[in-house]
Design goal:
Rossmann fold; Tumour Suppressor Smad4; Ubiquitin-like (UB roll); globular; ATP-binding
């Protein structure tokens, strides 16, 4: 070991992106002469600090003296530690393990301020990795604008948190799961360099607006004066504004990662999305965006679109720069059959202008698109009253204004590349076969979390699902269609599967070959991976709703019927029965703390009383929102559609009681709106019988959405 001290360090497998220690030199702080220091001592303290401040800000403790090499692509990593439920704080340690600590920066410690990037101005082939949400990326791009580096370093993205539409557009996926950092570094190094249009926003007060149109809560300034993704006004901006106000911060618009006032409310992606659904539900019932068309005038490249917008009566208007919007949807769609419009690009100098009604917003989630209005290079938007707007997810309520949108520049980005061939990773030089016959095995989340570092044990814990035959050059997107068809074939391999539980909609592929452990592949990146890259003779998939017990005959499976009458508990399960009764009492009394305590002690959240009522039934009957949200967050998904003895689900009960907020919690968690009780009523019909017409309208809207979604899933293959 001691003999290796004198050996030169190879910098490891990622040497091409690592900044060598030899490039970093400590800089000496400038020393003043004795006479100069005496003169400065006579000066006042205030004058000294005001003159010396900028000089001190320019001084850096070390400097970079690179040795250019065409084989190197040195990388700077900027991590937002607060993104993604604090995922960033965990991943920063992994980057420090692989890279030089001088090339990894914590954005909570001052952001990508000029001195940090200025030091690397002369580094050839420099690349940047932004770890965070789309706001983090925009912040870094704005800093690069200020520095005017020539050439500008391309920026890659490791998406953390929710949304991440820019990351999805550039093939980086919708969020980070557990892909090894080593793989991420390889993707950044191999990625393609592309251009991204960036757009200027200039807003000024509308001089024609009268005093009656003023709103004390409105502002005259936009949160950002440039956008990369989209600028929108109306319904979606209202939802985003409510979400941000409940967080107690204005995001990245102030160029610093703010602390949240209520962080305990938003410590997971599920809860963040639940809140978005809640504010959308409220806006739907109040109809606060229905008169949007009456208060805006839109002129695109000199053409007035206002009459067209007034005919459409949209609740939301979006000026879109990238194909993705609202956490991965594609509102422009594929207008191949419409010769009036071109396919969307993020580097063509054009914006897509789209209008949304409530119907098109619902269809958007199942592959639909909005109303295409135009493609243009310049927009002049005039509002006659205060309207919620958002700029790349940063919302505000903007007073009556005149807004001009024009192209600013193009940013240089890194797009994650697809493998150049479908050849296996092993260098056996064998041609890719025309067809692949692959065994599909399913892994539960419980087993995955416990064993994903032990490949052999995880393979043994997997459950065979069936066999698929796919073309040899198939990517995972095509393979997904074959796997989903597998369970739809009544006489196929899926019917003979040892487990009868259907695949949940949330299943994903596992990479079992390219790293030392299993890791998940984001669904948004399936088209980038070939089947032969992640599997040989067997492909593994992760189903988060499959319980580990389903693979073990000595334990009940998730599809096992729940006991309807625990009146005569045996000594073996008597303690479990008593714990279940305590859980029910806690739900009845709205005792959230007691319920949480019992659950942490091992209590079964699927326990039922003698009438087959679940804890969720009891929580709904008492109107306990906190208990309902806790159960939705922690109980198995089967609880959503569990029925009591009269055939009622918890959603039937909430609709009959007129509990609007609880209804939307249950609906957005995935409950079926098509289930009927013993009288043949759906939840919507129960709301109608309770004479709550607004709730019935909401449930009808979501029921229609579920029907479209089901039809879409049935015909997708």
């Amino acid at each position: 070991m001691l003999q290796q001290i004198e050996e030169p360090c190879s910098l490891g497998v990622h040497a091409a992106v690592v900044i060598p220690p030899t490039w970093i030199l400590r800089a000496r702080r400038p020393q003043n002469t004795l006479k100069a220091s005496k003169k400065k001592k006579r000066a006042s303290f205030k004058r000294k600090s005001s003159k010396k401040g900028p000089e001190e800000g320019r001084w850096r403790p070390f400097i970079i003296r690179p040795t250019p090499s065409p084989l190197m692509k040195p990388l700077l990593v900027f991590v937002n530690p607060k993104s993604g439920g604090n995922q960033g704080a965990k991943i920063i340690q992994s980057f420090l393990w692989y890279l030089n600590p001088r090339q990894v920066f914590d954005l909570s410690q001052g952001g990508p301020r000029e001195p940090r990037l200025e030091m690397y101005r002369k580094v050839h082939n420099l690349r940047i990795l932004a770890c965070g949400g789309d706001g983090t990326v925009g912040w870094i791009l704005s800093t690069l604008d200020q520095l005017r580096l020539k050439p500008p370093p391309p920026v890659a993205i490791l998406p953390l948190g929710t949304g991440n539409d820019l990351a999805r557009t550039l093939n980086w996926g919708g969020g980070y799961t557990d892909e090894p950092v080593s793989k991420i570094l390889s993707h950044v190094e191999e990625g393609n360099v592309v251009q991204l249009d960036r757009w200027d926003l200039h807003a000024e007060p509308n001089p024609e607006a009268g005093p009656e149109d003023r709103d004390e809560g409105a502002t005259d300034r936009l949160p950002l004066d440039v956008f990369n993704n989209y600028f929108s006004l109306g319904f979606d901006a209202h939802v985003t504004l409510e979400f941000h106000e409940s967080r107690g911060w204005a995001g990245w618009a102030q160029e610093c990662p703010q602390e949240e006032a209520n962080p305990e409310k938003f410590n997971s992606r599920f809860r963040n999305k639940m809140f978005y659904a809640g504010t959308a539900f409220s806006d739907f019932l109040m109809g606060s965006s229905k008169d949007l068309a009456k208060h805006i005038r839109v002129v695109c490249d000199g053409t007035d679109l206002t009459p067209k917008i007034q005919d459409l009566k949209p609740q939301c208007v979006v000026f879109l720069n990238i194909p993705r919007y609202c956490a991965g949807t594609m509102p422009w769609g594929h207008p191949g059959e419409h010769h009036d419009f071109e396919p969307q690009r993020h580097d063509d100098g054009y914006l897509e202008v789209i209008g949304f009604t409530m119907t098109s917003l619902a269809a958007l989630q199942v592959g639909g698109h909005g109303e295409r209005l135009t493609q243009c290079r310049e927009v002049v938007l005039t509002t006659s009253k205060a309207i919620p707007v958002q700029v790349d997810g940063e919302p505000c309520k903007l007073a009556a204004s005149r807004i001009r949108i024009a192209l600013r520049n193009q940013a240089t980005m890194v797009q994650k590349a697809k493998r150049r061939s479908a050849a296996p990773l092993h260098s056996d030089q064998q041609p890719v076969p025309e067809q692949l016959r692959i065994q599909v095995s399913r892994v539960s989340m419980h087993d995955y979390e416990a064993l994903h570092y032990d490949k052999e044990q995880l393979k043994e814990a997997s459950v065979p699902l069936g066999t698929v035959v796919v073309p040899g050059d198939s990517d995972l997107e095509l393979c997904r269609a074959h796997i989903e068809r597998l369970q739809q074939e009544p006489d196929g391999a899926g019917a003979k599967s040892p487990t009868c539980q259907k695949l949940s909609p949330k299943w994903c592929f596992l990479d079992a070959t390219t790293a030392s452990r299993f890791y998940r592949i984001d669904r948004a990146q399936e088209h980038l991976n070939y089947v032969t890259e992640i599997a040989q003779d067997e492909i593994y998939i992760l189903d988060p709703e499959l319980l580990g017990a389903s693979a073990r005959p000595d334990l009940p499976t998730p599809t096992s019927p729940l006991p309807t009458s625990p009146c005569s508990p045996t000594p073996r399960n008597g303690q479990v029965f008593r714990a279940g009764e305590e859980l029910i009492e806690a739900a009845k009394r709205n005792d959230f703390c007691k319920l949480q305590e019992l659950h942490r002690a091992g209590g079964d959240l699927m326990h039922r009383d003698e009438r087959s009522r679940t804890l969720l039934h009891h929580a709904v009957s008492t109107g306990s929102k906190d208990v309902v949200r806790y159960l939705l967050d922690h109980a198995p998904p089967e609880i959503l559609d569990a029925v009591e003895e009269n055939g009622e689900t918890c959603l039937h009960q909430a609709a009959a009681l007129g509990q609007r907020t609880i209804c939307h919690y249950i609906v957005e968690a995935g409950a079926s709106l098509m289930k009927t009780d013993q009288q043949g009523d759906t939840p919507r019909q129960r709301a109608e019988k309770a004479q709550d017409t607004e709730l019935a309208a909401y449930l009808e809207n979501r029921q229609h959405y579920q029907m479209i979604q089901r039809e879409d899933q049935e015909t997708a293959v």
